[in-house]
Batch of 4 targets.
Target 1
Amino acid sequence: MILSISEQAVNPDKNGVLPGYISARSAQIDTTTPRFAAVVDGDCRIDECIGGTQDANSCASDLDCPDGGMCAGVGLSSSSYADDKDGDGFVDLTIHFPVQGTGISFSTTEVCVEGAFESGVEFGATDNVNVK
Ligand SMILES: [Ca+2]
């Protein structure tokens, strides 16, 4: 599983979409499943609160996060699409996902994805992100 995020600089204070791609060499990706979040202290923070007074609670929405925390984790934007970028017979995803909602901050250096293959087997991957 390869996650490759664009090296273009991203500003977490502005609405924006981060492009990249996901490639799998031995299984078809279930294209409805990938979700993205910031990596904080080495942990992929999908469905966890970031900021506020209590980091790392599990959450379903920002309302579950105390004192201004946010519930990190976003799905693909509708501009994402599946294709076999490397021609190996397995679907790759050209991805776009909204920066806001991931929990990316000016101290973030890494982003993670979690999702599943069509077999139901789950995958995860990380890549560096250029925050400025
Ligand atoms: Ca492929």
Target 2
Amino acid sequence: MIEEEIQRNAVYLHEAGHAVVAVEMGEDFISVHCDGQHGYAVPAKKTSQPSVVDFMAYWGSFVTRMGGIAGESLELGRGHDTVFRAGDDISTFYGLAIAVNRSLGHDIQYLQDQMQDALLCAKDIVKRREVEVRAVAEALKLQPEMTKAEVLAVMQRALAGAAAQLP
Ligand SMILES: [Zn+2]
């Protein structure tokens, strides 16, 4: 594959990674969008904030934010470890982490450790569910705007297809 194609593929895998990790972590979202250059997910409005404010209360949200980098690493992780849209996700991660941390007072090293843990967790999910991540990425190429229900249907079909191929 030429470099441009790898990058394009990685953009789709990035959004698919966010979506599949969100499903696994129980983070609600309305839809996922990707046009091959840009992408985003529309999160569902949270009805209630966790009453006990600590990092664990936001863990699903932290891991979902790292899902994009995890998803694109399926293409980009081999050979070179450049991440395509890491900048945005890392800054939103720290935005949330700093807000959560305001009353907790952990130091920056703690927040960095949380990010590494969340990234490892997201990468683990993406590796384990690679078939579904790749299926959602392919579906997004045909349909640049997918609702959560459509994402779930694609994931289910991908699993059924993978099961049918077992010896
Ligand atoms: Zn992202």
Target 3
Amino acid sequence: MTLAFVLNGHAVELDISVGDARADVGVGSADDTRSRMPVAPTMRLLDLLREGYGLTGTKEGCGEGECGACAVLIDGVLVNSCLVMVGQLHGFTVTSIEGLPESDPLVASFARCGATQCGICIPGMVLAARALLDRCPEPSLDTVRDALAGNLCRCTGYTRIYAAVLDAAQTAGAPTSRNTK
Ligand code: FES
Ligand code: FES
């Protein structure tokens, strides 16, 4: 059975097999997402991204859906990729942090505001912020806090992260994840 979806603007086709075929997955790359790779439908999206395509911007923290380090956008909605099975992806559009354009104002704002320390949480934070700004271009501080509540950071104390999101919101002409599909 073939499973087809879009990853960071590239069409992906995967051969779904019933066995645990994780060992066969390490043949793809971010630029070669049309490769047909045998994968088990129960493989985690997190593992497909990191091990299959080398998209290591997506991090594993808790592995249990609690920290947001593995967050990606699926059809523009923030989802923890450690909780998504590859077999669920047919017909969807997945955006990992590598799919966010460099020109996205969040990139400059996180740097300008000094919002990053160790960086483990930042890909998920940025995608959570992108999902927020796509649906709410001018959020309040409370709205930003609520939107990022599922993304944990052990380093920054959050203040500069919230400031970066508000800073990005003030930047005109922000491209969205939808523009990258
Ligand atoms: S690694 Fe997925 S939510 Fe923590
Ligand atoms: S910057 Fe280290 S966990 Fe957030």
Target 4
Amino acid sequence: MTSAGQAPPDAPMDVVIEHYDQQYAEGGFGYGAQRDRWAAWVRRHYIDEFELRPGETLLDVGCGDGFWTDLFAEAGFPSTGVDFSPGGIEVARTAYPRPTFLVGDAEDLPFADDSFDIVFTRAISHLSRPDLFTDASRRLMASMRRVLRPGGLILISFYSRRDGGGTPEHAWHRVSDLVRLIEGVADPFHIDVTGNYVQIGAQRWDAPRARSGRTNGASRRTSPTPGSSARGTLRRALGRARRALRGR
Ligand SMILES: C[S@@+](CC[C@H](N)C(=O)[O-])C[C@H]1O[C@@H](n2cnc3c(N)ncnc32)[C@H](O)[C@@H]1O
């Protein structure tokens, strides 16, 4: 996630689309140069950390040029990417034949209710706006929740304010504020913080996702990294919340 490549957060939609069309035509964010590194990141911070099960269907909201969508597809998740940048979707379709890609608005997702097991979003523009609690953010959350099947998982990945970061135009928010936004539509049950990246998993209130019961961190990293102690503190706090959720 690079702030340099992000569109001005409060720009009108047509300006944002034009910005990203150009960004993707010029090579996107350059993640492909380190595909193995990011594939390992997906395994560790998304699949293992949130106990995603290969075979589950996944929607990547604001998928851009499809790089992350394809990493999920490669890992065994039937994946669909949606973005309102036609340029991004064109690049995605050309570069990655595995997933399905569609042009569409994240705030009004072009799918039926209850369509996906996992609804994922990474670095979506809404979360870098100085005001996180906009109508647009709420529409995004509601739209993601609508297409999630009962028992499904919303997984949001972004920067947090921890370790600084952000620019005058692009705010990084506190983890607690991101959680507050998400809990308007689903119950956050687990947070992964690494440096100033944060991953938040949330499940539908009406049909909590069955968990594997793993509590010993078996799939966790084995060597300490920056942020690991904060991760531990947050994990313990969220573990309590998760146990409370399970008891419902
Ligand atoms: C910073 S890029 C992140 C792309 C990709 N998820 C990644 O992590 O590399 C933000 C993406 O969100 C998309 N986006 C922003 N608002 C959107 C909306 N309302 N509907 C669909 N896509 C949107 C942009 O077109 C852009 O591709």
